């Protein structure tokens, strides 16, 4: 019998996370003073309060709110947006619980409100807001004539409301520790580049990522839910992604949020049709015990091995995917295997699928993508074509009736930084993600086994970060 004094409470195996996809109440008319700006921001913060109370009642440990969720993203004039910003101190230099000391710093209403949300609901809170800091115009060459820097900023508070971390969207390496993991902070397009995410994961011991974003739904492989999951799986981290909700925007539809692990999606939402309200997602996340070897740069041996030459086929046609020219072959019959190459980079697909009238193609891209920022990529993609015309292969598709009983995709990637992604369809013409256990990514490539719903696309996105700027010195 073990004496009571020697009994130790077992460490929890999971923590409870929440992300909130927020339908922003945009300020109108734009504020002409600080008081007006605070009143407008309170309309969104009160919704944050309601959602945090729901999450707190369900025992949530950490909650993430989206980028631009407090005042929207439409204000482009720095002389207008200044009213919505606050001087955010450095938490490494200041020990501060804003909820307890609301008058310690001037112009801190948003910080106080967020701190009180964390304290009242006994959870970690991560939110996005605007930081404004003085600089010396005429002395500092980067300082604007008005004498201020303006930053897109993440802030984090612990269960007591203490301000514990801030991150400027400037590729800094900022993280905070909790009793259930080390959380790295990123904002939106940060996810596309090496800094800060990969540096945090590889060299700073980060196990989990918090990701406020205002992400446009860009198909076929830059949907918010698809890319978030591919990052979590490809880099073996837990990933809490909160997007703003504006699917009715005619230019770019912003939506898609989720809670992801190295095994796949625990909870997510992809809803381009509901015009009102937000989405609160809650999930129990396994505590991440990841141990990843440090990789000093993205130049290394060929990943997944050399191409299978006996399966080599000449490309049958070209088509554009996100404005890049891909080489494609059609995926015919109910089973087969094929290798296709572009500029020395080769992709191999082995598959078994149902017999349907859907048209599928297998494609390859190797080069510098420029439409959404310079990104040097090696990509293998299995995609459903939008119509029966080959030129539609690579255009966004929302419907599929074809289930793949199995597939395996590999490539002779010359980078270890690869994002594996699978997108499936459902009956409501909403994109979905495969169930955990229905796919696997590892040394054998990306494999799908009895994927639970009809397939829209499967992609391996390899990133050569050091080649993004080919005209830079040393690029």
Automatic annotation (TrEMBL):
Annotated family: Belongs to the carbon-nitrogen hydrolase superfamily. BTD/VNN family.
Keyword hit for rRNA-binding: no
Keyword list, A-Z: Hydrolase
Keyword Hydrolase recorded: yes
UniProt xrefs under Pfam families: CN_hydrolase (PF00795), Vanin_C (PF19018)
Name of the molecule in the record: VNN1-like protein
Gene3D superfamilies referenced in this protein's UniProt entry, alphabetically: Carbon-nitrogen hydrolase
Entries under InterPro entries matching the protein: Biotinidase/VNN, C-N_Hydrolase, C-N_Hydrolase_sf, Vanin_C
Occurrences of domain CN hydrolase (ranges): 15-287
């Amino acid at each position: 019998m073990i004496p009571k004094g020697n009994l130790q409470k077992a460490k929890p195996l999971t923590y409870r996370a929440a992300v909130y996809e927020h339908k922003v109440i945009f300020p109108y008319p734009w504020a002409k003073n600080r008081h007006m700006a605070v009143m407008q921001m309170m309309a969104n913060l009160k919704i944050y309060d309601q959602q945090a109370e729901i999450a707190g009642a369900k025992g949530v440990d950490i909650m993430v709110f989206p980028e631009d969720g407090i005042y929207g993203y439409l204000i482009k004039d720095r002389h207008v947006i200044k009213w919505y910003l606050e001087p955010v101190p450095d938490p490494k230099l200041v020990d501060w619980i804003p909820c307890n000391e609301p008058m310690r710093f001037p112009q801190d209403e948003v910080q106080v409100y967020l701190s009180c949300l964390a304290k009242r609901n006994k959870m970690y809170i991560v939110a996005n807001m605007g930081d404004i800091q003085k600089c010396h115009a005429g002395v500092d060459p980067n300082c604007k004539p008005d004498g201020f820097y303006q930053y897109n900023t993440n802030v984090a508070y612990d269960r007591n409301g203490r301000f514990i971390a801030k991150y400027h969207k400037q590729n800094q390496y900022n993280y905070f520790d909790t009793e259930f993991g080390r959380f790295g902070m990123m904002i939106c397009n940060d996810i596309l580049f090496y800094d800060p995410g990969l540096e945090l994961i590889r060299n700073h011991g980060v196990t989990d990522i918090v990701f406020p974003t205002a992400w446009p739904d860009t198909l076929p492989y830059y949907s918010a839910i698809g890319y978030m999951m591919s990052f979590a799986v490809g880099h073996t981290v837990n990933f809490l992604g909160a997007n703003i909700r504006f699917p009715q925007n005619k230019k770019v539809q912003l939506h898609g949020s989720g809670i992801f692990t190295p095994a796949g999606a625990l909870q997510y939402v992809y809803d381009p049709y509901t015009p009102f309200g937000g989405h609160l997602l809650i999930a129990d996340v396994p505590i991440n015990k990841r141990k990843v070897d440090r990789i000093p740069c993205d130049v290394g041996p060929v990943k997944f091995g050399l191409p299978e030459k006996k399966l080599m086929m000449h490309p049958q046609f070209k088509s554009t995917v996100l404005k890049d020219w891909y080489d494609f072959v059609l995926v015919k019959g109910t089973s087969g295997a094929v290798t296709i190459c572009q500029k020395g980079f080769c992709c191999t697909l082995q598959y078994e699928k149902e017999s349907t009238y859907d048209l599928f193609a297998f494609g390859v891209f190797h080069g510098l993508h420029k439409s959404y920022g310079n990104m040097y990529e090696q990509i293998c993609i299995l995609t459903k074509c939008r119509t029966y015309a080959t030129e539609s292969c690579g255009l966004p598709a929302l419907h599929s009736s074809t289930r793949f009983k199995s597939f395996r995709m590999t490539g002779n990637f010359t980078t270890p930084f690869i994002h594996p992604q699978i997108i499936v369809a459902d009956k409501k013409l909403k994109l979905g993600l495969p169930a955990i256990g229905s796919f696997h990514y590892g040394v054998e490539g990306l494999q799908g086994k009895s994927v639970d719903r009809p397939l829209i696309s499967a992609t391996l996105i390899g990133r050569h970060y050091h080649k993004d700027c080919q005209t830079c010195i040393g690029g």
